[in-house]
Amino acid sequence: MKDTYLKASVGLSLLAGKARAHIADVYEEMSERGERGDNPVVTVLLWIAGITIALSIVAALVSLGTKASTKVDNVDLDGK
Predict the structure, then answer these.
(1) How many angstroms separate the Cα of 22 from the Cα of each of 3, 36, 55, 59?
(2) What is the pTM (predicted TM-score) of this model?
(3) Which one in 16, 34, 53, 79 has a CA-CA gap of 20 to 30 Å to 2?
(4) What is d(CA 75, CA 80) in angstroms, rounded to the nearest whole number?
């Protein structure tokens, strides 16, 4: 059982080293390429605006559907 703990701890320590190496490689590549030009704040604002517009359209459709449903419920289709 102790071998399992030893193997797990060695695996975790190797994983941490690999993560550090990958992050260092990413930082190096970012410094070589330079700025990509996209602004994350603008991207977030556009996503928020798009989601807000979509939710307002859905809310309007649900509201219209509910209003139409209540009008149809009051109609007597038997004709008697």
Answers:
(1) 28, 20, 39, 45
(2) 0.44
(3) 16
(4) 12
